[in-house]
Structure formats: C-alpha cells, structure tokens
Amino acid sequence: MEKRFHRKGNKPKGRSCLLAASPGFTLLETVVGIALIAIAVLGLAQMFTLSVMNNFRSDRITTASFLAQQRVDVLRNLTVAELDTFKSSASIDLNNDGTPDLLKDELIDLHGDGTNDYRRLTRIQDSTEYSSAWEVDVLVFSAEQFRTDQSALWADPQRHRVRARVSTIISR
To answer: Among 58, 63, 98, 125, which residue has the fewest nearby CB atoms (within 10 Å)?
Structure first.
C-alpha cells in the first residue's frame, strides 16, 4: 500500500471537498426562483379569470340578441289586425286559449329552472315615415333590471345596461 503525502497548503481530495465545491442552488436562489414562478402563475390565473368573465358576458349578450331578434321575427308574422291589437294593449292572445302569447314586458326563464334570466320589453307604434307600417323596438335586459320601472328603461337603456336592442320597421 502506498501512502500519500500532501504538501502543506494542498488539501486532500476527499468527500468533504467535493461537497463544498459542487455546483448547486443556495437557499436564496431557490426562494427567488419560487417567487418568480409564483408571480408568473398569478398573472396567468388573473388572465384566466378575466377570460372566463368575458366569455360569460359575451354569452349573455348573444342570448339577449337572440331573444330580441326572436321577438321581431314573431311580430313580422302577425297580421295587420294582430299588430294593431298588440300596439294598443299590453299583450295579445294569438291562439284564443285565454293566455297571452305575446307580452310587451315579460320575464324570461331560459333554463326552465324557475329562475327568470332576462327581461324583454317590446314597443310597437305607427311609423311616422311610412303608411301601413309599424316601428318596433325590442330591449332585452338581464336580471339586474327586473324591478326597474319600464319607463326608466325606455328613457335610458344604456344607463340600465341593455344587453340587446333591436329596432326595425314592419310594413304591410
């Protein structure tokens, strides 16, 4: 067996020297790395939340637009007498069963769960520009406006956050 002698100042190459000289992360570097990753993840989580809220809002606007256009399509299929009746009353019974089929102010339960989701207002008036024509306005609001007075909604729909507004002329 050979004995190794070391000069003064030279450290022996052993296990303790390897640990001291090995590359690695200090506690401070690890904490800083975790903090940077946490900041990035929080930014992504906030973006995800914002995109979910925007999708929900656009879904409500799309549904409201569909409800407004649906009302206009039904009114386009009415006869002159039915349009005049609807113009002069709050509702109209199209199939004579005693229950109104069209309402000027109605709450709509889309999902059939007993909770109303939208409020649809319809206004029909004689056209000032054309004879044998009616001006039709349909406003659709979300649940926040269920208790708001109808005249206030018609006066300033934007202030009350109208979800959809369709205006058209029906002529015969």
So the answer is: 98
Q: Supply the CATH classification number for the domain 26-171.
A: 3.30.1300.30
Task: Quote the tokens at residue 4.
Answer: 């190794």
Burial 71-96 (b: 16+ CB within 10 A, else e): bbeebeebeeebbebbbeeeebeeee
**CA dihedral in degrees (59, 65, 68, 73; nearest 10)?**
-120
Q: Report the DSSP beta bridge partners of residue 165.
A: 139
Residue 165 CB coordination number (10 Å): 16
Reported as a single tens digit per residue, the pLDDT across 124-143 is 999 988 888 999 999 999 99
Domain limits, the chain: 26-171
Q: Please tell me the pTM assigned to this model.
A: 0.72
